[in-house]
Structures are given as structure tokens and as C-alpha cells.
Amino acid sequence: MMKHLHAPILTGLVPGLFLGLFLLLSGVAPATAQDLTDLAIETAGGERRFAVELADTPATRRRGLMFREVMPLDQGMLFRFERQQQLSFWMKNTLLPLDIIFIDRRGVIVHIHHNAVPHDETPIPSREPALAVLEVNGGVARLTGLASGDQVRHAIFGNAGQ
After folding, report:
1. Using one digit for the tens of pLDDT, what is the confidence trace for 108-148?
2. Residue boundaries of the structural domains of the chain
3. Measured between alpha carbons, how far is 19 from 60 in angstroms, rounded to an integer?
């Protein structure tokens, strides 16, 4: 005798499987521990540390933190570009408010845009040429005392561990 799945189980299971498959294929899943690298920032109040996911290809930079619903306060995403230049970001399809921190090739913070508004398509410029951008949860930059002129230490700047 063949058993049949009850409709409520099947209807609850199938959409969940499709959602999980969509998130997996779209790369929206949160970073795992092996995807994260250490980043330190020297501030007037002492060193602040973050675990960051690196976005260093056109595809990972394009996707960024879009569609993410949560991110721990001590994590972020570090975008690295091929050369220092004027950069501009926007918040299209981004669900979380973010602090967008622009960093030059020496690892110095050149500008911080605080609390970028989710879904806002208004360009957010670097104001000065930058090589990288660190995105953290909105409010974290002020909470941890980050400021323009602070030194960021990470492998992409060649100054990690200094």
C-alpha cells in the first residue's frame, strides 16, 4: 500500500525548498566562517575588529549585501576595486541600513556615509578617490567611534598584522 503525503505538509515543504534553492543559487546566504577575514581599524578610542566577507570580483561587488536580512554587528563586507578611483554606491535591493566607509589605497578612511537608507537609489559618492569600501550595519561606525583618517588594517592594503 502506498502512502501519500498530506497536502499541508507538501504545500509547506515545496515553497520552502524553492526559497532555499533560490537563496543558494543567488548567493544571498550569509557568509560562513571560512568566507570571513579579519579587519582591524585603529580609532582614537582603540582598535575595532570586524570579520568581513570580501567582494573582489565584478559579480560579488554587484551583489554586495543585497537581499540580506541580518548581519551580526561585528561583521561587514569589504569591497575591493582594481584601482583607486571615485566610487559611488546605492542601496537598491538592500534591506539593511548600512554605514558605507570609503578607504584609500593606504588603508585610510576618507569618508563615512552614515545610515544609508534601504532601497534608496540615490548615489552615495566617496568624495575622494578610494580603493575599497567597508559596509557595516547602520549606526556601527558611530557606536564604535570610526572616523575619517582612521587606519584600516587588512590584507588588501598590505598592512595586516602591523
Report:
1. 999 999 999 999 999 999 999 999 999 999 999 999 999 99
2. 31-157
3. 21
